């Protein structure tokens, strides 16, 4: 079969080079029968290929008949609008795997699936149709999905090949249940991946809750733009699921997952795809899946996909792998990907009739295979040292088979990964400490995480964000009764002792529901006056001071003018107020710096002095 495909591809190539049109005279007469000139053409090509004339004549006749059928279909499509679709059936149907099906393009994908199932004897719910490297959508018309005349459609079965005639009804029922289970598995996978991606978008602070993390070749996390994070996660999720099916050799289920992954990868920017090698590996997996389904001819752009994979590897790893070696110190693991690439390029060229190119790529694949071959005794020696089989293989490939160097490499790699985990853990610990500091000031956990994420982990910047945007943490859903509750006199006194106006202190405590820390920090940040968007409405608004605290009754407002000096920061304002409250006592600046997160405790400490 492979020899016939190669010969057919080679003859097709010769015909194109010589610009021979077999469906026209002198190769086809008026009655569409074989012309006299075809014999001379057969002899010419059989001598060129050093093949039997009968075999060459048979293949050329098949090409001629197919060309006539295509021409007839083209005329029919122009006249009636009825398109012809070339249907490729599963590999278990060894005879007549390629068939022509006529249909109009305004019908839906579900109608086409029904027609294919009825025509070729499939169960409608247990097949999938792939056209133009995309799974056919049942609810849309063929025109909407880009289906055209003379397009190729590949049929995938969701069940394993069984006997043509079932012995009893029970066996048939088990087959249907198996197909239903596989379809449910696919749907569960798709829904699960969508839920994962949606939840990842809802994570407020990825540093404390890394719902899904993406790492580079060294294991360190990669910062992904939020706009592309969901698409990349869906793409990688579908890819991993497809690879799992590939390992179990369930190619018919794997291919739709891989094609969905390709669709989502195309939504990511080129700079992102050049950072990781996942997109290149996906191209290899798609071509391999088509090959194992024996439908490589349905993949018109197999060459483009392999070239794209090679280009992506070059951009990701660098010329001669120098970027990869700089990052990891070796390229042993990634050489396996080039082995797959060379093998698939050889297979594709062979099926395209390019014998010399096929031989060149297959020789490169063989040489690389011999280079990557691992001596089992060396793996056993490393296992005795306590390493895993996977670590042993990767280490030996990275160190070109040297056991001692491989042992050192594995140990170093373990230390690197442990150090990365330690750094990530320490980074998370510091972030949690910052969150707890903001919580100690009275801010909600959600707001603290959000502000720290915006500030890149900087606590001072996060505090400024919270003070400048109180809407981030003030909930509109809070009932007004909590606002109307009068704050305790003790809380008001604490703010007055710090130098704030009595009325402003009472209003602030109502707004912040009695939280002295938040009230003090916000008043200090805004110069002793609540901003208009925070002042209470309705009956409470009448008590809101319309003038500055310095103009209000009470001596405590006399300190505000100094606190409003331009350029004075939050700590300086609080320190100045404490010094006014406790004149003649030293160490106020250090006391306030340490007590910034708990203002009442700071005031109490100053009194005790």
TrEMBL record:
Principal cellular location given in the protein's record: nucleus
Protein name: NEDD8 ultimate buster 1
Biased composition (Low complexity): 537-553
InterPro entries cross-referenced by the UniProt entry: NUB1, NUB1_ubiquitin-like_dom, SASH1/NUB1_homeodomain, TPR-like_helical_dom_sf, UBA, UBA-like_sf, Ubiquitin-like_domsf
Naturally occurring in which organism (per UniProt): Marmota marmota marmota
Biological processes, Gene Ontology terms: proteolysis involved in protein catabolic process; regulation of ubiquitin-dependent protein catabolic process
SMART domains, per database record: UBA
Coiled-coil residues: 155-189
């Amino acid at each position: 079969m492979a020899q016939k495909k190669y010969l057919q591809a080679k003859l097709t190539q010769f015909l194109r080079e010589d610009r021979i049109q077999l469906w026209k005279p002198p190769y086809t007469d008026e009655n569409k029968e074989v012309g006299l000139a075809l014999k001379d053409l057969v002899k010419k090509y059989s001598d060129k290929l050093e093949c039997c004339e009968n075999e060459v004549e048979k293949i050329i006749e098949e090409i001629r008949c197919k060309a006539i059928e295509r021409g007839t279909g083209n005329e029919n499509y122009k006249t009636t609008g009825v398109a012809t679709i070339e249907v490729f059936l599963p590999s278990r149907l060894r005879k007549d795997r390629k068939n022509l099906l006529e249909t109009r393009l305004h019908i839906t994908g579900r109608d086409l699936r029904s027609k294919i199932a009825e025509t070729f004897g499939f169960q409608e719910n247990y097949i999938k149709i792939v056209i133009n490297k995309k799974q056919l959508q049942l609810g849309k018309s063929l025109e909407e999905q880009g289906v055209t005349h003379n397009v190729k459609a590949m049929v995938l079965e969701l069940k394993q090949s069984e006997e043509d005639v079932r012995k009893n009804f029970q066996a048939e029922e088990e087959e249907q249940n198996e197909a239903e289970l596989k379809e449910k598995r696919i749907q569960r996978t798709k829904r699960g991946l969508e839920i994962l991606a949606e939840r990842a978008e809802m994570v407020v602070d990825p540093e404390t809750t890394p719902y899904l993390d993406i790492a580079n070749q060294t294991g360190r996390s990669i910062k992904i733009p939020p706009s592309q994070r969901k698409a990349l996660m869906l793409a990688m999720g579908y890819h991993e699921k497809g690879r799992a099916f590939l390992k179990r050799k369930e190619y018919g289920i794997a291919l739709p997952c891989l094609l969905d992954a390709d669709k989502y990868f195309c939504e990511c920017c080129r700079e992102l795809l050049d950072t990781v090698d996942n997109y290149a590996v996906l191209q290899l997996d798609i071509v391999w899946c088509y090959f194992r389904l024996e439908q490589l001819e349905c993949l018109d752009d197999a060459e483009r996909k392999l070239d794209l994979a090679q280009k992506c590897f070059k951009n990701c790893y660098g010329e001669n792998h120098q970027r990869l070696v700089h990052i990891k110190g070796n390229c042993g693991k990634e050489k396996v990907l080039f082995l797959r690439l060379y093998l698939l390029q050889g297979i594709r060229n062979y099926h395209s009739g390019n014998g010399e190119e096929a031989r060149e790529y297959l020789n490169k694949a063989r040489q690389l295979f011999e280079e990557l071959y691992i001596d089992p005794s060396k793996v056993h020696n490393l296992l005795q040292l306590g390493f895993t089989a996977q670590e042993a293989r990767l280490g030996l490939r990275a160190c070109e088979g040297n056991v001692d160097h491989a042992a050192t490499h594995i140990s170093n790699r373990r230390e690197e990964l442990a150090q990365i985990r330690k750094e990530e853990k320490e980074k998370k610990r510091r972030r949690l400490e910052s969150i707890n500091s903001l919580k100690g000031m009275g801010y909600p956990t959600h707001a603290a995480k959000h502000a720290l994420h915006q500030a890149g982990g900087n606590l001072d910047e996060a505090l400024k964000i919270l003070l400048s945007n109180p809407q981030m943490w003030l909930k509109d859903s809070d009932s007004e009764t909590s606002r109307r509750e009068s704050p305790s006199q003790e809380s008001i006194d604490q703010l007055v002792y710090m130098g704030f106006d009595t009325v402003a202190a009472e209003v602030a405590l109502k707004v912040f529901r009695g939280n002295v820390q938040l009230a003090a920090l916000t008043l200090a940040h805004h110069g002793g006056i609540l901003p208009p968007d925070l002042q209470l409405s309705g009956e409470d608004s009448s008590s809101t001071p319309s003038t500055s605290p310095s103009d209000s009754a009470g001596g405590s407002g006399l300190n505000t003018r100094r606190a409003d000096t331009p350029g004075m920061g939050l700590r300086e304002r609080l320190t100045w107020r404490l010094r006014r409250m406790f004149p003649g006592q030293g160490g106020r600046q250090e006391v306030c710096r340490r007590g910034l997160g708990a203002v009442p405790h700071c005031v109490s400490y100053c009194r005790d002095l």
